[in-house]
Amino acid sequence: MSEPLERLLSIMARLRGPGGCPWDRVQTFASIAPFTLEEAYEVADAIERQDMAHLKDELGDLLFQVVFHSQLAREAGHFDFDAVAAAIGDKLARRHPHVFTPPAVGIDGTDGTAGAANRAGDFGVDQQSAVWEDIKAAERAAAARGRSSALDGVPLALPSLMRAVKLSKRAARVGFDFARAAETADKVAEELAEVREAAAAASLRSTPSAAVFEELGDLLFAAANLARKLDVDAEAALRAANIKFERRFHGMERLAAERGLAFEALDLVAQESLWQEVKRAE
Question: Is 148 helix (H, G, I), strand (E, B) or coil?
Fold first, then answer.
């Protein structure tokens, strides 16, 4: 183990030990889980902005979360950091048989090392992904002792958009999927029509509509499924759309201010005109 990692583990143990940090000593798995999610998002944000200095810091913060959970588990007698590292090493080797399971005799006639290297090179990304998913499915089935569902193991804590993609991907593995992306797009249109219908019915009542809530959920799920079918990262696409909206909205506000106008006092037609102007300038 490297000296910096040994130091980090030692610091974590001291923070949790007698005379350590009062805040760290009272934490539990549940209490620090939100911080773990937050740090993962901050890593993604640094990558999105291509800020390598910030990425280094955020990866450190995320590593600290792993160390924190491992320390809590060690104290409770469940496992420690070494066990976590060993488990992920075993998993990676198990899920990459084309790399780590060489034939008894390699194609060079000596040993399996060159054979494994060549077999790995012959694998395309799609093949590697298929092998990975097949092995994961087998692991889930073994863990469930024959009682598994194709949807088992998709964490509830995932962001809803990401979870929708994973659920539809799992369903597709057992044949529950449209053959073509165009059919998936038709499903989006169908769900949008149902949202419109539910919204029209809701406008006749003064109480919130459970039907609108449900149909909007169906529409979002269908859109996530379409992204999967088109091989688009739905989470990344929505994140990019958010950034684009912010950029254009700030541009509208800036143009209004330059012209001595109060943006919030403009009617929708005038605001839309500013939006189109900003859009054309990009």
Answer: coil
More confident residue, 35 or 158: 35
> Does residue 162 contact residue 225 with C-beta atoms inside 8 Å?
no
CA distance linking residue 193 with residue 189, whole number of Å: 6
User: Class of the 160-281 domain?
Assistant: mainly alpha
Whole-number pLDDT of residue 122 = 58
Interval 223-228 mean pLDDT = 96
- Residue 174 contacts residue 150 (beta carbons within 8 Å): yes
Which residue matches tokens 């929505």? Answer: 238
Alpha-carbon span 199 to 176, nearest angstrom: 29
CA 278 to chain CA centroid, nearest Å: 31
Q: Model-level pTM?
A: 0.63
Q: Could you tell me which CATH number the domain at 3-94 has?
A: 1.10.287.1080
Is residue 275 within 8 Å of residue 248, measured between CB atoms? yes
**Residue 118 predicted with pLDDT over 70:** no
Residue ranges of the chain that CATH labels 1.10.287.1080: 3-94, 160-281
